[in-house]
Amino acid sequence: MTWQADDAGGLADPGPARSGDGEGGTDAARLRAAFGELSRRGIGADWDLGPTMCCGSCGHAEAERGPQGYVFTHRQTYGPAFWGGPRQPLPALLEEEVAQARTWLGDYVSGGPGDPAEELFGEWLRRGDNERRLNGAYGYEREHRWHTLVAPLLLYWRAESGPGELVEVLRAHGLDVVPPADDRTAVQILPSGRPRPPARPWPGDARARTLARDREDAVSPVLRGLCDDWPPHSEPLPEQSLYGTAEPAEDERRAWRLLDWLARRALPACLRTLVEALPDDDDDADDDADADAYEDADDAVTGTAAEAWESLSELTHESMLDSLDRPGLPPSIRLLTAIFLDSPDDETVEECRRHSGLAAAWQAIEHAPGMSYRAKSFAGGLDHHAAEALAHVPADARDEAAGKLARELATLARLLVRPGEAVGP
Fold first, then answer.
1. Under DSSP, is residue 400 helix (H, G, I), strand (E, B) or coil?
2. In what order do the strands lie in the sheet with 153-158?
3. What are the DSSP calls for 319-351, one per residue?
4. Could you tell me the mean pLDDT of each successive run of 10 residues in the chain, 425 residues long?
5. What is the pLDDT, as a whole number, of residue 402?
6. Number of helices and strands in the chain (H, E)
7. First to last CA, the chain
8. Is the distance from CB of 411 to CB of 231 less than 8 angstroms?
9. For FRET with 79, which of 29, 205, 278, 370 sits at 20 to 30 Å CA-CA?
């Protein structure tokens, strides 16, 4: 059977199986078809495990069993047999995407004794659904690009009746087989020498194709990050307005203006909405800590803009439990800490992030070249606390506040398309 890449980067419904026989088939297709027939005959055989099984020992322990035995391959022989090395080459569009990510992920790379390229790739892989996208692209290219043997492939097996049936089925599917000398020897599948079918690289998912166009059209990664998480009920930026906006210095200024909006407008607005929704009687608070935090709520909102720059970035997750009793703690930080310790469900918080534009602002800042890791972490704290404050508010007031913030961000975004003045410390 053949897998097709879907727009999300995964593998769509494979459709009807094909035999893999004949000159038009590929070695990978013949092997897949042979494994399917072996499985139907009672010999455990799962072709898709080959690229993921780490070694022979794990294969013998984890391979799919059948009443007549089992057969498997693993990546230490699969890679050299199909693409000539242990690691599958990165699809071209994703290789370009990772290289582009260096401009905004550079500060996440430690600069230690490890391989910087590997660290960069690891940071990229942890973002969003990139791991799923990569696995989908790898699967597509194993089927459509790396499908012809360039070196012998080893198949490991166990069968009470010996290798005869296994060899017979493999040969029946057009494979050049070297039978094992004994039950401790692997079956070898040799390169066939037939004309190699065309190799088709991964065509990309919607994300990869967008980023490829962005590279051609010089689109700002900050503005693209903003558009990727655009509030669902706000009018998006016109796509044509993004062309020719990729200027590193200007992108850093854009990110600082978004960070300033988070600290001086979005977070205080979310807190003000929360304060207005609080019960009048402090006795209604769940515990003394909450009552103490809410006591100076109005002062907290008023003071947040000035205090956030200095205090919030220093408040770590580990210190939150102790921070309510810390002498001299700014009232806004006491309020934020109480909110964090009484967190609503993640789904509500995420809905608040998306509908208010907080998520869009954070994505834009995250993709800013030249902005430090500390500044980005600070932005993440502002985004998180503001969303949690909004999530505590009753639904009607929450929706109204989120819509107002989203409209403000949309207005700011249109200003960011044009060069502006630097904002920040």
1. helix
2. 43-45, 69-72, 153-158, 187-190, 176-178
3. GHHHHTT-TT--HHHHHHHHHHHT---HHHHHH
4. 41 39 71 96 93 87 90 94 94 93 77 74 90 96 94 94 94 95 93 86 95 94 93 90 92 92 87 74 48 50 54 47 54 62 80 94 91 83 86 90 94 83 39
5. 95
6. 19, 5
7. 58
8. no
9. 205
Nearest to 389 by CA among 379, 406, 401: 401
Name, in order, each residue with C-beta under 8 angstroms of 94's C-beta and a sequence gap of 6 or more.
133, 134, 137, 202, 208
Buried b (16+ CB within 10 A) or exposed e, 4-41: ebeeebbbeeeeeebbbeeeebbbbbbbbbbbbebbee
* 72, β-bridge pairs: 156
The beta-strand segments (E) located in 237-296 are: none
Would you list the DSSP string of 223-249? HHHHHHT--TTSPPPPGGGGTT---HH
pLDDT value of residue 376: 86
Give one word for 7, left, alpha or beta, with left for phi > 0 and alpha for psi -120 to 50. alpha
pLDDT score, position 379: 87
Alpha carbon separation from 366 to 114, 387, 424 (Å, rounded): 23, 17, 16
Find how far residue 100's CA is from the centre of its chain.
16
69 beta partners:
43, 66
Q: Which amino acid is at 332?
A: S
Backbone angles phi, psi at 239, to 5 degrees: -60, -40
